[in-house]
Every structure is written in structure tokens, then in C-alpha cells.
Write the C-alpha cells for this entry.
Amino acid sequence: MKHEGEKKGGGLVGSALTLAACYFVLCLVCFLMIVINDPANWTGYFLENYTDLITLAVCALLLCAIVYYYYYFEDRAFVAQAHNVVLVFSLFIVCIAMSYAFGKLIDIYARPCALFALLCVFLFNRRQAILLNFIFSVMMFVIDTYTNNFTAEGATTQVYYSLMLNFVCGTFAIFAAAGAKTRGGLLLTGCVISIPTVIIVTLLQVPVIYTEPVVFFISIGCAVFGCIVSGILALSGLPIFEKIFNRLTVFRLRELTSTNAPLLVRLKQEAPGTFNHSLVVAQLAESCAVAIGENAELARAAAYYHDVGKLKQPDCFTENQTDYNVHDELMPELSADIIRSHARDGYELLTASHFPKIIADCAREHHGTLPIKYFYNKAMRLSGGEADVGDYSYLGPTPRSRIAAIIMIADASEAATRALKDRSPEKVEHTIRTIIEERMDLDQFADCDITIRDLSVIRQTLVETLSGVHHHRVEYPAIRFNRDRKAVKEEEKR
């Protein structure tokens, strides 16, 4: 524990230094905006308005500090990783640059005011997106106020228009995007948020609706354009941020769970028994995740890949064997080492393939530190009862998330109930209850925040789902029909 604390403390120092570098880049972007706005006289602008620029620098620093301390108190593990700090401030810098470009080249209302919010809600979560969008709106307000972005008459009014659009439209976008599960849905969100945007622009432009109707309709058109562009840019930018920072979004989850995903294709071809087992575990994990309020799509994706380490030696696992079992010729020590290595191999394969960390972690954690009973029992028989259980146990770590705990239980429950001859609900319930209680006795859930109530709900959900998966069928009569649909042969029922 001390080592982990020291590691996290070192990470916080590194992330603080990264924050300082990001702040410097942000100030550099503001500097370039001033230069581009007045390339012939930017030095004079700096000399005449140095107090405003100092105010801008201090305000930007305070806003950066707010972001850092928000994560420090709400999600310290997130901010301890420097690349997460880079991600957050990359979004700030990119969206500030985009807002400046569209406002400079077209019109203030043409700014992609919802771009930042859309990126944040998919790369993080709704709560973080709301806070970050608020900071972004204030950041743009400060930049517009203390730079020469607006120099024409009515500049002060335009600055407040920008604040309103960024904050209100961004907040609308966060809630409108909640139901978007496809990239097409994200693009549609950009169109949907144009409705409240038009209302806001109309309210802001009330004084000129009758006096300058052309200006009013141009503003409306630019606002709609900005909303649609927000969706298009978010659609284009998300894959880039997903790839560079290895972030997990609902879109990437769907791509990973496609049957055409490379690793799933390999699993289907090289380890078909493991693939079919993973499909059932995914169904179970998804049902359990829904029941306890976890991310169902993440649970399904993690279950698809939890046994991908078996690709290294697929024939060494029962579900991929036919008549020949390689373990009949091996010592139990070697067999146990082969079996338990699939958790580590899966983690390494997923990490090398740049999968999200939580999916790779589930592959490594889904057996925890449980003993491999079959080979431990075999070793006990061969050694006369002198085998060490530690030599026949998985290497861990134990599950550190509720998703990993769900997969641990679902994986064991599917295998155990498949081996049952009597699959009545009572027998299935007893088997699953035994599995959960054994893992509790062995402290397999000590490192994750799963509750007794969650385990009870998971047990009941698995009983209901497995009763459907392994349901009994009626026995078909042994009757054969010819082309004329006449029975030509009938055998006695067994």
C-alpha cells in the first residue's frame, strides 16, 4: 500500500508539471490569436494592453487550477496520469482554436459552440462534461474579453453572446447526446441542438429582428451551421482522441464487440469452444451489469475478450478439445501453469493491441487468486497430500472493478451449470450461490466496491438467465419422412 501511495504521489507531481506545460501552450495559443488578428501592430497592442493580458494569464491559470483540483478531489487516479491531463487540455486548446477560426473566418454565431461538450460527454462522462463545458465557456469569455478578437462596434455584446452560446448550447448538447449510441446518432445530435440554439439567438437578436431582418436571418443561419459543424467535427475528432489517448467510448465499444473485430475472428477460428463460451458469458455479464446499474456494453465487451489469452495454446483448454487431452501426459504443475497463464497472456495480448485498460484488466483479474482445483487435487493424489495450493492458484490480482467481479462470477457460473445434469432453477441457484460464497470466503472481492446487495442481485439474475440459456427441450420423436411427407420409418422412443 505504501508503494502504491508513493507511486500515485509521484504521478500527481508529474501531472502537475504536465498541467504547467499545458497552461504555457494555452497562453501561446492566445498570443498567436492576437498576432493573427493584427499582424502589423501586435507589438503595440501588447504594450498598450499589457494589464489586460496579465489579467487574461491569471484568469486562465485559475481556470486550469480549478480543473486540476476538481479531478484531484473527485478522481485522483485520473489526474495522477499525465496523459489524462494532456487529453483534457488538448480538448481545450483544439476547441478554442476551432472557435477562433470559425468566428474569425465566418461569424461569431458560426462557432462550433457544442463541439467541446460533445467531445467531453463521450470521452469522459456527463458529470465531468458539464463541469468542463462551464470552464470552457468562461475560458472563451475571458479570451474574447482580454484579446483583440472583437474590435468592431458592439464587441462587448458579442463577447456575452459567445458566453451564452457556449454554455447553454454546450449543456443542451451534453443531455441531447446521452441517447446517441452510433456515430450517425452523434451527427443527428448536432442537428437537434440547433433548435434551442435558434431560440437563444432569436432572444439575443430581438432588438434587430424588425430593424435589420437580414442580419437576424444571417445570424440564425450561422448558428444552425455552427451546431451542425459541431456534430461533424466531433464525429471526425472522436476517433483521433480515442486512438491517441486510448479512450473508451460507446462507439469504440461497439466496434470492439463486432464479430468482425480481429481478435474475435481469431478466437472464432482458432478456439471455437472458447469463443462460444465467451458469447454466453457476455450475455450473462450484460444482464448482471444492467441489474446492478453498471455499463452493460462495457461488461459485454470485457466478457468477449476475457479468455482471449487462450489463443496462445487453445488445445490445452477443455472447450477446444475433442478426444485427446494434452494434460493426460503432463505433470499437474505444468498443467496448472499452462491454465493459469491464459489470464496473463490475455492481458499482454490486449495491452499490445492497444485495448482500453479496463478490458485488459478484466482478462487478467477474472480468476483472481483462485486455486485450480482439478490439478491441485491431482497433485495431492500424486504427492500424497503434500502439494502447496499456492503453486496451483492463479496469479491475480483479484478483481478491482465491479465489471471484473461480474465476469469472474458469470464465467464460473456458465462453466459449472453447463456441467450439471440436473439444471433445474433450484440446482442452478445452489451452484451459483456456492460459487459466490466461495469467492467471498477467499477474499476475491476485497479490492472492488461490489456490495452484498450487488452479489445477491447478480446471483438472482444469473439464475434467471442461465435457466433460459440451458433450458430443457422436449425429446423429438424418431420419425423419418420422404418427399411426399409420408412417414416411412418410425423408431421406438428411448
Remarks:
- Residues 1-7 have pLDDT under 50 and may be disordered.
- DSSP finds 21 helices and two strands in the chain.
- Strands lie at 479-481, 487-490.
- The domain at 2-247 is CATH 1.10.1760.20 (Arp2/3 complex 21 kDa subunit ARPC3).
